[in-house]
Amino acid sequence: MPFFATAACKSFQESKGKNEDGRVLWNLTVPVSQVPKGLPLDPNARLANEKRSTVKSMLDTLAKDPEEFIFYNNGILIVADSIKINGSGSSGGFNVELKLVSPDEQQEDKFIGNGIVNGGHTYTAIMKALEAYEKLQSQPYKTKTKSETAKANYSELEKASVQIFVLVNVNQEDIANISRYRNTSEKVEEFSLKNLAGEWDIIKKYLPLEYESNVAFRDGENKPYDVTDLIRRLACINNKVYPWRSGDGSQKNPSATCTSYGRLVKNWKKDDFEEIVPLLKDILYIEECIRSEYDQTKRISKFNGVEKNSYKFITGRQFENKIPITFVFPILAAFRVFITDGNWEKPVEQLWNEMGSNLVNSLLTAYKNEGRSNPVFFGRSTSTWSNLLLIPMQLKLS
Predict the structure, then answer these.
(1) Cβ(66)–Cβ(238) below 8 Å
(2) C-alpha distance from residue 271 to each of 180, 191, 202, 267, 274 (Å)
(3) How far from each other are the two terminal CA atoms of the chain, in whole angstroms?
(4) Lowest mean per-residue pLDDT among 117-126, 130-139, 246-255, 336-345
(5) CA 276 from centroid of its chain's CA atoms
(6) Which residues pair with 76 in a beta bridge?
(7) Number of other residues whose CB lies within 10 A of the CB of residue 90
(8) Which of 196, 221, 372, 393 can bridge 216 by disulfide, Cβ–Cβ 3.0-4.6 Å?
(9) Cβ–Cβ contacts within 10 Å for residue 172, how many?
């Protein structure tokens, strides 16, 4: 990845042993017009979203005050395998060459790769401005239409520069940590940081391929659901975290899936979910059955919290009504009575046929009696979760 820099300095070099190279940080000043295209964002905790207000602000500066951009912007941090810097001769400046290594198919789960670890939104803004600038340069004498003159004018983009920091001799663990801490100036979703650390690999393994287009595993992927939605559903059936019957006979219900699911992500441990994740497709099937049952329930849209509105589920299936999660998750949780050591005691289709409709009807009856017409209150009620367990428990004993 070659490009030109007007200034370059080695700003820090870590001291290591004789046989080990320490980490080195370079600071480069690069004209925006010289920023290389195609820099990978693989090590970044989140994908850049060009719709963010920060990107729009940067584009505004590049168009109106390009010479101020380097003072207003935090710059771009790149992790590279190696860097070469040579003076460009009498004209001044430096020729820079970065070696960036990307993971191949065999490495994807273990190797994050080189590229931008912070400053992805800066890079996105620069690429958009550069595209407009190059188009303008290729047609310098074209008469502008009214719509074109209303657009941002990047005709003086050559006045803009950006700081690019380059780190070399960095191991994979360091890349994940650097990305995590560098990206905390603008909050990155916890699930996105955990994705960088490989925490969701087990979920990706068992998520059916046809559902992947609906589920984001890092911030900025612009999908209707994210991995948090999968964790909440897996937690509903997780007897290790929320045992339906403890050794002392007590129960621990997963009401946190409705009320404080942020903690589920923060406290996620692979070991706690290892047995349950292989059942992911089954739990999504059960929820499809639940939502289908609600669609067939007369006057369901009259219940407070239910919207008569088309709803697209994680699986891609469309439903007629948007149902509160407090009408869904307690029913999902009841099915964990029939999970032992990560296996169903009966096929899920049989379990649904034997108790699915009964669970839905029981929940709606309880909502009328206890919910006070408030789905949020209903989801926090211990009786909502505990009473539904009586149905699978009776079936288990029969």
Answers:
(1) no
(2) 23, 17, 10, 12, 5
(3) 69
(4) 246-255
(5) 21
(6) 164
(7) 5
(8) 221
(9) 14
Find, among 324, 307, 305, the residue nearest to 372 by Cα: 305
Burial of 79 (0-12, 13-18, 19+ CB in 10 A): buried
Q: Is 126 left (phi over 0), alpha (psi -120 to 50) or beta?
A: alpha
| Arithmetic mean of pLDDT over the chain | 86
The DSSP 8-state label assigned to residue 307 in this structure reads B
Flag whether pLDDT at 154 surpasses 60: yes
Residue 330 has pLDDT above 90, yes or no: yes
Token pair 């045992």: residue: 243
Nearest to 34 by CA among 165, 161, 166: 161
Q: What is the DSSP letter of 189?
A: P
Cα separation, 101 vs 113, whole angstroms: 6
Reading the block at residue 3, the tokens are 């490009």
Instruction: Provide, for the chain, the percentages of residues in helix, strand and coil under a 3-state DSSP scheme, each rounded to the nearest 5.
Output: 45, 15, 40
User: What value does the CA radius of gyration of the chain take, rounded to a whole number of Å?
Assistant: 27
Q: Give the span between the Cα atoms of 230 and 103, in whole angstroms.
A: 27
Are 351 and 338 in contact by the 8 Å Cβ rule? The answer is: yes
Quick one: which of 331, 307, 74, 267 has its CA closest to 182? 74
Write out the DSSP string of 350-372. HHHHHHHHHHHHHHHHHHHHHST
C-alpha pair distances (Å), 156 with each of 31, 73, 131: 12, 18, 13
Rounded Cα distance between 294 and 306, Å, is 10
Indicate yes or no: pTM above 0.85. Answer: no
161 sits in the region (left: phi over 0; alpha: psi -120 to 50; else beta) called beta
Closest CA to 386 of 337, 339, 314, 338: 337
Torsion angle in degrees (nearest 10) through CA of 326, 328, 329, 334: 120
Q: What is the DSSP letter of 143?
A: P
129, HSE (Cβ side, Cα atoms, 13 Å): 34
CA 22 to CA 41: how far, in whole Å? Answer: 24
Structure tokens at 353: 């046929």
